[in-house]
Specification:
The structure is a homodimer.
Chain A lengths: L4 E8 L4 H12 L3 E7 L3 H14 L5 E5 L2 H5 L4 E4 L11 H22 L5 E4 L4 H12 L6 E3 L3 H14 L6 E2 L2 E3 L7 E3 L4 E2 L2 E2 H5 L11 H12 L1 H9 L5 H14 L8 E7 L2 E8 L1 E4 L2 E4 L6 H23 L9 H4 L4
Parallel strand pairs in A: 1-2, 1-4, 2-3, 4-5, 5-6
Antiparallel strand pairs in A: 7-10, 8-9, 10-11, 12-13, 14-15
Helix pairs in contact in A: 1-10, 4-5, 6-8
Chain lengths: 336, 336
């Protein structure tokens, strides 16, 4: 069996639902042959690793370790879902602080054990903040750390396809930028539904015998921002297959395949200062390189507003002492 | 994205852990583009389908339905993990009867809705009996219904690789035949550990600086027969990734890729009468075609003993009225 890379890929949080799916999908899709599974929960980790051994993947080199140094050492690629989940009675704010602490330690661990890592994908929420915190403490160049940012866009694509009763791939140009969560900026320009522009559809043009009102479009946007919550309602657990799968697609992008979705990128310029958020990005062996999205004035205003929200979260994380003051970032990470 | 088949593949039990992993893996590995997910638990099914929509698979046509006729209609391939799990206080015997009933209904549903199905893979336990029951009631030719039978062999391969500290792929020729479960026949002949025959290893030849005693070999065989139980102990849940993955490998075998592991086959000849069990099998567009395994007298005796055990289970299922008397099988299924 051939794989896109035989270099070491470390999956953090590999005893969990996302991480164990990730390890399987990396190998099963021919993406990576050498996967190291890490989790502090050694027993569940061994169980997840055993499952993969029972898959009998040809030519795969799957290892597991509950030691973070061993797991990261020599690793070219790191994908991490290893944050804490939100627990009963915990606010979003508590989650940010706890997971930013985990991200800080991850950055330090990367700096110590795999300072030449080519690409790090951070999945755990709030990803914009955990990704940023990982980057700052890792010392890596800014293009080498990214966050999973595609799911809002694929949820939008899927919701539009379901509304019109057409194949999902026939809906193109769905892009949400800025922060992940309710403050995301859903870009309307560029969306095509089986070749019909969204504005034309909203203007009365039917697709597959169906029209769409402004109210229905608002509902769909609302559905997208609540996409993760909907999964929890339906399945009784949070998403794990889609975060895993899209992270594998991101890695494939870095390994040379086309990747069409937004990625979390570090921005410091063009009116965005020291922030990580979903942007149009080209993935390649150089990592994730962002560009400014094209959009209407409304789209761009939404992006600015989403940015402002992230700046507040970033500054709270600085206030917590988890991120250094902005003036010290280039000392902690000379690449920034 | 290209797929090995664009024909309809129906996954039964798709709201569950195995089934939802199956649907994802079928598409993610480029095996099938058209996947219909069925489960009687509609809410969880919708959640699992939504997760796959959020993956944004290019050119995939993923549908879901809680209606069995709609799900099977027009289906070329069926993979089912849709049995009942063993519950607290339930004996293995209770499980057999309940799941054989489910398998009978599945056979009837296949006969009504997709009588031209090319290949059906039955995963749920006891697979030898549920697969057999599905076959008899489906009316399909015997090569068109198979059961997942690889996991005992991949567990053996993995256990030997771990013992010698070598890559799993360097252990070849691991084969367990006959029934799945504690009555399986572990074939010793043909096993090579990095090029060293198992008997040579047992005779004192070291591999990677390690030897293996007869007691250690017995422990490994014991570990293999308890492989599924071990996963439950470690993960707190039964295997789902490896059954899913190996079923996808089986389908890929039918679609033209090499498949090296045993498959569940219907036998009626060579001293085996009207039974389904793990055998050496060639997978192709003709389905699963079995051949007699080569082995030592001990190996063959173990296979006969495993067969006798399955005959008893089959006869109990006839006694329950779930399978017809042997003399009526060719009436229920003229292909047998």
């Amino acid at each position: 069996m051939s794989y896109l890379t035989n270099e070491k890929v470390t999956v953090l949080g590999a005893a969990g639902a996302i991480g164990s799916n990730l390890a399987q999908t990396l190998v099963a899709s021919g993406t990576a042959s050498q996967v190291c599974m890490y989790d502090p929960f050694a027993q569940g980790l061994e169980g997840a690793a055993e499952e993969l051994y029972h898959c009998g993947f040809p030519d795969a080199d799957i290892t597991w370790s509950a030691d973070i140094a061993e797991s990261l050492s020599g690793s070219s690629y790191v994908i991490t879902s290893g944050g804490a989940p939100r627990k009963e009675g915990m606010t979003r704010e508590d989650l940010r602080r706890d997971n930013a602490e985990i991200a800080k330690q991850l950055g330090i661990d990367i700096k110590e054990n795999c300072p030449d890592a080519k690409f790090v994908i951070v999945i755990f929420n709030p990803a914009d903040i955990t990704g940023l915190t990982t980057l700052v403490h890792s010392g890596l160049p800014s293009t080498r750390v990214s966050t999973l940012a595609a799911l809002d866009s694929t949820r939008l694509q899927s919701a539009l396809a379901q509304h019109f009763g057409i194949l999902q791939s026939k809906v193109t140009g769905c892009r949400t930028y800025g922060g992940h969560g309710e403050q995301m900026a859903v870009f309307q320009g560029g969306i095509q539904i089986d070749g019909v522009g969204l504005s034309d559809a909203l203007g009365g043009q039917e697709v597959n015998g169906k029209g769409m009102s402004e109210d229905e479009w608002k509902d769909i946007q609302e559905k997208v921002t609540q996409g993760g919550t909907r999964i929890i309602q339906l399945r009784g657990r949070s998403s794990f297959q889609s975060p895993s799968q899209q992270s594998v697609f991101m890695l494939r992008g870095v390994l040379g395949e086309p990747y069409e979705w937004p990625s979390g990128c570090y921005l410091n310029g063009d009116g965005f200062e020291k922030i990580m958020m979903a942007m149009p990005a080209r993935l390649s062996d150089a990592g994730a390189e962002w560009s400014l999205p094209e959009g209407s004035d409304t789209d761009i205003a939404a992006l600015r507003s989403s940015y402002d929200h992230l700046v507040a979260l970033r500054d709270q994380t600085i206030g917590d002492g988890i991120l250094p003051p902005l003036s010290e970032w280039s000392i902690v990470n000379p690449n920034l």
